[in-house]
Amino acid sequence: MNRTRIAVVGVGSLGQHHARILAAMDDVELVGVVEPREDRGREIASKFSTNWYSSPAAVVDQVEGVVVAVPTVLHAEAASCFLQAGRAVMMEKPVAADLATAKRLQQMAEAGGALLQVGHVERFNPAFELLQEKVQSPLYIRCQRVSPYTFRSTDIGVVHDLMIHDIELVQALVNSPVAAVDSFGAVTMGPHEDFAVARLRFESGAIADLTAGRMCPQAERTIQVWSEGGFVSADLQTRKLTSWQPCPAVAARPGMLHDVVAATAAPLTLKDEVFSKWLQQEETQASDADALTAELHDFVAAVRGETRPRVSGIEGVAAMAVAERVLEGMSGWSWQSGSPFEQVRRAA
Fold it and tell me: How far is CA 191 from the centre of its chain?
Protein backbone atom coordinates (compact mmCIF):
# COMPACT_ATOMS: atom_id res chain seq x y z
CA MET A 1 0.00 0.00 0.00
CA ASN A 2 1.26 3.47 -0.88
CA ARG A 3 0.92 5.49 2.29
CA THR A 4 0.14 9.20 1.94
CA ARG A 5 2.82 11.33 3.57
CA ILE A 6 1.25 13.90 5.91
CA ALA A 7 2.61 16.28 8.57
CA VAL A 8 0.83 18.34 11.22
CA VAL A 9 1.82 21.97 11.72
CA GLY A 10 0.97 23.08 15.25
CA VAL A 11 0.33 20.47 17.95
CA GLY A 12 -1.57 22.42 20.57
CA SER A 13 -4.95 21.40 21.97
CA LEU A 14 -6.40 20.49 18.56
CA GLY A 15 -3.30 19.70 16.52
CA GLN A 16 -2.32 16.89 18.88
CA HIS A 17 -5.56 15.10 17.99
CA HIS A 18 -4.86 15.48 14.28
CA ALA A 19 -1.47 13.86 14.91
CA ARG A 20 -3.02 11.06 16.98
CA ILE A 21 -5.62 10.18 14.35
CA LEU A 22 -3.25 10.40 11.38
CA ALA A 23 -0.67 8.23 13.16
CA ALA A 24 -3.28 5.49 13.54
CA MET A 25 -4.42 5.51 9.89
CA ASP A 26 -3.12 2.55 7.89
CA ASP A 27 -2.88 4.48 4.63
CA VAL A 28 -1.01 7.46 6.12
CA GLU A 29 2.60 8.01 7.10
CA LEU A 30 2.80 10.73 9.73
CA VAL A 31 6.07 12.23 8.52
CA GLY A 32 6.39 14.62 11.43
CA VAL A 33 4.97 17.39 13.54
CA VAL A 34 6.00 21.02 13.19
CA GLU A 35 6.01 22.96 16.43
CA PRO A 36 8.16 25.98 17.43
CA ARG A 37 8.12 24.90 21.10
CA GLU A 38 10.76 22.19 21.14
CA ASP A 39 9.61 20.50 24.35
CA ARG A 40 6.03 20.25 23.12
CA GLY A 41 7.07 19.19 19.62
CA ARG A 42 9.35 16.42 20.87
CA GLU A 43 6.70 15.25 23.34
CA ILE A 44 4.03 14.79 20.66
CA ALA A 45 6.51 13.39 18.11
CA SER A 46 7.69 10.77 20.60
CA LYS A 47 4.11 9.90 21.60
CA PHE A 48 3.16 9.13 18.01
CA SER A 49 6.50 7.71 16.82
CA THR A 50 7.35 10.44 14.35
CA ASN A 51 9.80 13.32 13.93
CA TRP A 52 9.82 16.86 15.28
CA TYR A 53 10.56 19.88 13.10
CA SER A 54 10.85 23.47 14.20
CA SER A 55 9.60 25.13 11.00
CA PRO A 56 7.32 24.34 8.03
CA ALA A 57 10.16 24.83 5.55
CA ALA A 58 12.00 21.87 7.08
CA VAL A 59 9.30 19.39 6.08
CA VAL A 60 7.79 20.83 2.88
CA ASP A 61 9.80 18.56 0.55
CA GLN A 62 8.94 15.41 2.51
CA VAL A 63 5.14 15.53 2.41
CA GLU A 64 2.18 15.33 0.06
CA GLY A 65 -0.04 17.24 2.44
CA VAL A 66 -0.20 18.97 5.82
CA VAL A 67 -2.77 19.81 8.45
CA VAL A 68 -2.33 23.35 9.75
CA ALA A 69 -3.60 23.80 13.31
CA VAL A 70 -1.74 26.91 14.49
CA PRO A 71 -3.48 30.05 15.84
CA THR A 72 -5.58 31.74 13.15
CA VAL A 73 -3.32 34.79 12.87
CA LEU A 74 -0.47 32.46 11.85
CA HIS A 75 -2.35 30.50 9.17
CA ALA A 76 -0.89 32.36 6.21
CA GLU A 77 2.66 32.17 7.54
CA ALA A 78 2.38 28.44 8.26
CA ALA A 79 0.68 27.39 5.02
CA SER A 80 2.26 29.57 2.34
CA CYS A 81 5.34 27.48 1.62
CA PHE A 82 3.22 24.34 1.20
CA LEU A 83 0.68 25.94 -1.13
CA GLN A 84 3.40 27.53 -3.24
CA ALA A 85 5.09 24.14 -3.54
CA GLY A 86 1.83 22.50 -4.67
CA ARG A 87 1.33 20.54 -1.45
CA ALA A 88 -2.19 19.88 -0.15
CA VAL A 89 -3.21 21.82 2.94
CA MET A 90 -6.04 21.20 5.35
CA MET A 91 -6.41 24.48 7.21
CA GLU A 92 -8.26 24.58 10.49
CA LYS A 93 -11.18 27.01 10.35
CA PRO A 94 -11.38 29.87 9.75
CA VAL A 95 -9.17 30.07 6.66
CA ALA A 96 -7.47 33.19 8.01
CA ALA A 97 -7.95 36.07 10.41
CA ASP A 98 -9.47 38.28 7.71
CA LEU A 99 -11.12 37.91 4.32
CA ALA A 100 -8.30 39.47 2.30
CA THR A 101 -5.80 36.94 3.66
CA ALA A 102 -8.24 34.08 3.10
CA LYS A 103 -8.65 35.09 -0.54
CA ARG A 104 -4.90 35.36 -0.94
CA LEU A 105 -4.41 31.82 0.37
CA GLN A 106 -7.05 30.47 -2.02
CA GLN A 107 -5.38 32.30 -4.93
CA MET A 108 -2.03 30.91 -3.81
CA ALA A 109 -3.48 27.39 -3.86
CA GLU A 110 -4.90 27.87 -7.35
CA ALA A 111 -1.62 29.32 -8.66
CA GLY A 112 0.40 26.47 -7.17
CA GLY A 113 -2.04 23.76 -8.24
CA ALA A 114 -2.48 22.85 -4.59
CA LEU A 115 -5.48 21.43 -2.78
CA LEU A 116 -6.83 23.66 -0.02
CA GLN A 117 -9.34 22.14 2.37
CA VAL A 118 -10.84 23.92 5.39
CA GLY A 119 -11.48 22.21 8.72
CA HIS A 120 -15.18 22.89 9.17
CA VAL A 121 -15.51 19.68 11.17
CA GLU A 122 -19.23 20.12 11.84
CA ARG A 123 -19.89 19.16 8.21
CA PHE A 124 -18.78 15.67 9.30
CA ASN A 125 -20.92 15.57 12.42
CA PRO A 126 -23.27 12.60 11.85
CA ALA A 127 -26.17 14.63 13.26
CA PHE A 128 -25.67 17.32 10.63
CA GLU A 129 -25.23 14.73 7.89
CA LEU A 130 -28.57 13.21 8.88
CA LEU A 131 -30.19 16.65 9.08
CA GLN A 132 -28.96 17.45 5.59
CA GLU A 133 -30.56 14.24 4.29
CA LYS A 134 -33.90 15.10 5.88
CA VAL A 135 -34.13 18.77 4.85
CA GLN A 136 -34.96 20.01 1.38
CA SER A 137 -35.47 23.65 0.41
CA PRO A 138 -35.24 25.17 3.92
CA LEU A 139 -37.34 28.26 4.56
CA TYR A 140 -36.11 29.29 8.01
CA ILE A 141 -33.10 28.13 10.04
CA ARG A 142 -32.19 28.96 13.62
CA CYS A 143 -28.73 28.15 15.00
CA GLN A 144 -27.55 28.45 18.60
CA ARG A 145 -23.86 27.93 19.38
CA VAL A 146 -22.81 29.09 22.84
CA SER A 147 -20.20 27.93 25.34
CA PRO A 148 -18.29 28.96 28.46
CA TYR A 149 -15.19 31.12 28.02
CA THR A 150 -12.37 28.62 27.38
CA PHE A 151 -9.47 31.09 27.07
CA ARG A 152 -8.68 29.44 23.71
CA SER A 153 -8.82 31.16 20.30
CA THR A 154 -8.68 34.58 21.97
CA ASP A 155 -6.81 35.92 18.92
CA ILE A 156 -10.18 36.04 17.14
CA GLY A 157 -13.71 37.01 18.12
CA VAL A 158 -16.74 34.78 18.48
CA VAL A 159 -17.80 35.34 14.85
CA HIS A 160 -14.67 33.65 13.50
CA ASP A 161 -14.35 31.27 16.45
CA LEU A 162 -17.92 29.90 16.71
CA MET A 163 -20.44 31.52 14.39
CA ILE A 164 -18.48 30.68 11.28
CA HIS A 165 -19.32 27.00 11.87
CA ASP A 166 -23.01 27.77 11.47
CA ILE A 167 -22.46 30.22 8.62
CA GLU A 168 -20.85 27.39 6.66
CA LEU A 169 -23.54 24.87 7.69
CA VAL A 170 -26.47 27.05 6.64
CA GLN A 171 -24.75 27.89 3.35
CA ALA A 172 -24.48 24.15 2.71
CA LEU A 173 -28.16 23.65 3.58
CA VAL A 174 -29.56 26.59 1.61
CA ASN A 175 -27.15 26.53 -1.36
CA SER A 176 -28.01 30.10 -2.33
CA PRO A 177 -26.06 33.39 -2.18
CA VAL A 178 -26.53 35.60 0.88
CA ALA A 179 -28.45 38.70 -0.15
CA ALA A 180 -28.38 40.68 3.11
CA VAL A 181 -26.92 40.52 6.62
CA ASP A 182 -28.11 42.18 9.84
CA SER A 183 -26.02 41.79 12.97
CA PHE A 184 -24.96 43.11 16.36
CA GLY A 185 -22.55 42.00 19.07
CA ALA A 186 -21.02 42.71 22.45
CA VAL A 187 -17.60 42.71 24.09
CA THR A 188 -17.31 41.17 27.55
CA MET A 189 -13.80 39.80 28.11
CA GLY A 190 -12.39 41.42 24.96
CA PRO A 191 -10.56 42.53 22.99
CA HIS A 192 -12.86 40.94 20.39
CA GLU A 193 -16.59 40.30 20.41
CA ASP A 194 -17.74 37.53 22.76
CA PHE A 195 -21.40 37.55 21.70
CA ALA A 196 -22.93 37.98 18.28
CA VAL A 197 -26.32 37.66 16.62
CA ALA A 198 -26.84 37.70 12.85
CA ARG A 199 -29.74 37.32 10.44
CA LEU A 200 -28.82 36.10 6.97
CA ARG A 201 -31.29 36.61 4.12
CA PHE A 202 -30.64 34.41 1.10
CA GLU A 203 -31.54 35.10 -2.51
CA SER A 204 -33.72 31.97 -2.41
CA GLY A 205 -35.90 33.69 0.19
CA ALA A 206 -34.65 31.57 3.09
CA ILE A 207 -33.72 33.27 6.36
CA ALA A 208 -31.24 32.08 8.99
CA ASP A 209 -30.85 33.49 12.50
CA LEU A 210 -27.49 32.72 14.12
CA THR A 211 -26.50 33.24 17.75
CA ALA A 212 -22.94 32.68 18.97
CA GLY A 213 -21.55 33.36 22.43
CA ARG A 214 -18.64 32.25 24.57
CA MET A 215 -19.76 33.69 27.89
CA CYS A 216 -22.50 31.16 28.66
CA PRO A 217 -22.40 28.75 31.62
CA GLN A 218 -23.35 25.73 29.51
CA ALA A 219 -22.50 24.75 25.95
CA GLU A 220 -25.24 24.40 23.34
CA ARG A 221 -25.01 23.58 19.64
CA THR A 222 -28.37 23.25 17.94
CA ILE A 223 -29.88 23.76 14.50
CA GLN A 224 -33.60 24.03 13.86
CA VAL A 225 -34.93 24.00 10.30
CA TRP A 226 -38.42 24.79 9.01
CA SER A 227 -39.25 23.76 5.45
CA GLU A 228 -42.27 22.84 3.38
CA GLY A 229 -41.82 19.26 4.59
CA GLY A 230 -42.01 20.12 8.28
CA PHE A 231 -39.63 20.90 11.14
CA VAL A 232 -36.34 19.24 12.08
CA SER A 233 -34.20 20.01 15.13
CA ALA A 234 -30.68 18.67 15.57
CA ASP A 235 -28.60 18.76 18.74
CA LEU A 236 -25.04 18.59 17.46
CA GLN A 237 -23.73 17.62 20.90
CA THR A 238 -26.04 14.74 21.78
CA ARG A 239 -26.55 14.00 18.07
CA LYS A 240 -30.26 13.58 18.57
CA LEU A 241 -32.69 14.69 15.86
CA THR A 242 -36.36 15.43 16.37
CA SER A 243 -38.68 16.06 13.45
CA TRP A 244 -42.34 16.97 13.08
CA GLN A 245 -44.09 16.39 9.79
CA PRO A 246 -47.74 16.65 8.73
CA CYS A 247 -49.54 13.32 8.50
CA PRO A 248 -50.08 12.15 4.89
CA ALA A 249 -53.66 13.47 4.78
CA VAL A 250 -52.65 16.95 5.96
CA ALA A 251 -49.59 16.99 3.70
CA ALA A 252 -51.82 16.19 0.72
CA ARG A 253 -54.46 18.79 1.61
CA PRO A 254 -53.41 21.29 4.32
CA GLY A 255 -56.78 23.03 4.17
CA MET A 256 -58.55 19.96 5.55
CA LEU A 257 -57.81 21.12 9.10
CA HIS A 258 -60.06 24.13 8.56
CA ASP A 259 -62.82 21.75 7.49
CA VAL A 260 -62.27 19.65 10.62
CA VAL A 261 -62.45 22.73 12.84
CA ALA A 262 -65.63 23.89 11.14
CA ALA A 263 -67.25 20.50 11.63
CA THR A 264 -66.32 20.20 15.32
CA ALA A 265 -68.77 21.48 17.93
CA ALA A 266 -66.00 22.24 20.45
CA PRO A 267 -62.89 23.13 18.40
CA LEU A 268 -60.74 23.73 21.51
CA THR A 269 -60.81 19.98 22.14
CA LEU A 270 -58.79 19.47 18.97
CA LYS A 271 -55.61 20.86 20.53
CA ASP A 272 -54.87 17.48 22.12
CA GLU A 273 -54.85 15.89 18.67
CA VAL A 274 -52.39 18.26 17.00
CA PHE A 275 -49.21 16.47 18.11
CA SER A 276 -50.67 12.99 18.05
CA LYS A 277 -52.97 12.82 15.05
CA TRP A 278 -52.14 15.66 12.67
CA LEU A 279 -48.38 16.10 13.19
CA GLN A 280 -46.13 13.06 13.38
CA GLN A 281 -43.02 13.10 15.55
CA GLU A 282 -39.87 11.13 14.83
CA GLU A 283 -36.75 10.94 16.99
CA THR A 284 -33.48 9.68 15.57
CA GLN A 285 -30.12 9.11 17.21
CA ALA A 286 -27.27 9.77 14.82
CA SER A 287 -24.07 7.74 14.81
CA ASP A 288 -21.36 8.34 17.41
CA ALA A 289 -18.67 8.22 14.71
CA ASP A 290 -15.83 10.67 15.30
CA ALA A 291 -16.21 13.73 13.06
CA LEU A 292 -12.53 14.69 13.14
CA THR A 293 -11.51 11.22 11.98
CA ALA A 294 -14.04 11.39 9.14
CA GLU A 295 -12.71 14.82 8.15
CA LEU A 296 -9.13 13.55 8.02
CA HIS A 297 -10.15 10.55 5.91
CA ASP A 298 -11.85 13.02 3.56
CA PHE A 299 -8.63 15.03 3.35
CA VAL A 300 -6.44 12.01 2.66
CA ALA A 301 -8.82 10.83 -0.07
CA ALA A 302 -8.69 14.31 -1.62
CA VAL A 303 -4.87 14.34 -1.46
CA ARG A 304 -4.91 11.03 -3.34
CA GLY A 305 -7.20 12.58 -5.96
CA GLU A 306 -10.03 10.16 -5.17
CA THR A 307 -12.61 12.76 -4.12
CA ARG A 308 -13.23 16.48 -3.92
CA PRO A 309 -12.97 17.79 -0.32
CA ARG A 310 -16.33 18.34 1.31
CA VAL A 311 -15.24 21.85 2.36
CA SER A 312 -12.72 23.28 -0.07
CA GLY A 313 -10.99 26.63 0.10
CA ILE A 314 -13.81 28.03 -2.03
CA GLU A 315 -16.44 27.15 0.60
CA GLY A 316 -14.12 28.30 3.37
CA VAL A 317 -13.61 31.70 1.75
CA ALA A 318 -17.36 32.00 1.12
CA ALA A 319 -18.00 31.49 4.84
CA MET A 320 -15.34 34.09 5.61
CA ALA A 321 -17.03 36.56 3.26
CA VAL A 322 -20.32 36.24 5.16
CA ALA A 323 -18.48 36.49 8.49
CA GLU A 324 -16.91 39.73 7.25
CA ARG A 325 -20.37 41.11 6.51
CA VAL A 326 -21.50 40.12 10.01
CA LEU A 327 -18.55 42.00 11.51
CA GLU A 328 -19.19 45.02 9.29
CA GLY A 329 -22.78 45.13 10.51
CA MET A 330 -21.60 44.97 14.10
CA SER A 331 -19.21 47.85 13.57
CA GLY A 332 -22.16 50.15 12.92
CA TRP A 333 -23.88 49.72 16.24
CA SER A 334 -23.15 48.24 19.68
CA TRP A 335 -25.90 46.54 21.64
CA GLN A 336 -24.12 47.53 24.85
CA SER A 337 -24.01 51.29 24.48
CA GLY A 338 -25.51 52.40 21.22
CA SER A 339 -22.03 53.53 20.18
CA PRO A 340 -20.13 52.24 17.16
CA PHE A 341 -18.95 48.69 17.94
CA GLU A 342 -15.35 49.41 17.03
CA GLN A 343 -15.28 52.15 19.66
CA VAL A 344 -16.48 49.67 22.28
CA ARG A 345 -13.97 47.04 21.13
CA ARG A 346 -11.03 49.48 21.32
CA ALA A 347 -12.04 50.52 24.83
CA ALA A 348 -12.20 46.90 26.07
Answer: 23
Q: Which domain holds residue 26?
A: 4-121+291-312
Residue 343: pLDDT above 60?
Answer: no
User: In whole angstroms, what is the distance from residue 83 CA to residue 65 CA?
Assistant: 9
Share of the chain above pLDDT 70, in %: 87
pLDDT at site 284: 96
In a domain, 135, yes or no: yes
Which of helix, strand or coil describes residue 300? helix
Backbone angles phi, psi at 135, to 5 degrees: -100, 130
What pTM was estimated for this model as a whole?
A: 0.89
Nearest alpha-carbon partner for 173 in 144, 134, 212: 134
233 CB-side CA count, 13 A? 11
In our burial notation (b when 16+ CB lie closer than 10 A, e otherwise), range 43-73 reads: bbbeebebbbbeebeebbeebbbbbbbbbbe
Answer yes or no: is 237 within a domain: yes
d(CA 244, CA 242): 7
Return the H-helix or E-strand segment holding 31: strand 28-34
